[in-house]
């Protein structure tokens, strides 16, 4: 019997089994086809030609074994291919193209061994072959995406750890700090402040917006999303005033903002974080004020000694706090305006849109309830401390 007759007598399964005997040569040929079809397949990635050959070999073996009927379909090779290509930076499109090239290679060799005689059985095998290619491609793509997602999460976690190197106290470990500075292109000496900001919008998106908005005015920054809001390290250019940064931040954050004192080296960031968080608490909850650490000595004292502050509020303003909520609020609002207007009754009346006599009546009412005389500097200071304690330290 001639060679042609022998091939004509072989079933598609037998042809596939025959191909399996040439698996090393087929794997080498597929490897070369992939490299030619994807010119940057190896050059632009970390994938070696040996790894590509192994992937081709294992996936050809799985598909041919299924077509030959010798083994059930094994998808481990497809999963491994997807995982490897994601780890080595091969584009997903190139991975899927490689599977199509593999399917074409198998079909071409099946036809060669059948001497071009496309029997009905062989045509049915074509459908089965491309179903296999589709299935393996889908499995490889799913493995690729899963691996890529895992790598992205790992990269994000590495970035977070690098960020926190600066915000946590790593002063004794200067090497780690310098590595973080280089990664974020921050100088080892400059004009720095730390900002603590409350957030109400999606945190990651807002931190990206903040970074871009500050960069637009020449301020480089690095941000970390923590449980109590955003923490930012700002590097101010030249002699730029902190007020410029605060003005930008005030347009982005609707909650309270705390700003540390200026410092000169990022290794001193950790204590500045504490300052910024304390400064944030120096504004009443629910407000949208920006507070600088060095400008709020009384509020700082109260938030650091909160229990003593609550006691002072009760001792000074206890009778006021015992009133019905509406009257209590009206008296405290008037007292707050009077202090903000530097003791000017007329200015407080203008701010509150009240008649001056209304302000005077409320101030007299506070005097009668507390026994504190507004003309007495000591009594006035006590009222101020008591009011700020009520505002900053809710019971």
Automatic annotation (TrEMBL):
Every PucR C-terminal helix-turn-helix domain range: 331-389
Domain CdaR GGDEF-like: 172-281
Domain RsbT co-antagonist protein RsbRD N-terminal, first and last residues per copy: 24-158
Top-level taxon: Bacteria
InterPro entries xrefs: CdaR-like_regulators, CdaR_GGDEF, PucR_C-HTH_dom, PucR_C-HTH_sf, RsbRD_N_dom
Transmembrane domains' residue ranges: none
Family label: Belongs to the CdaR family.
Name under which the protein is recorded: PucR family transcriptional regulator
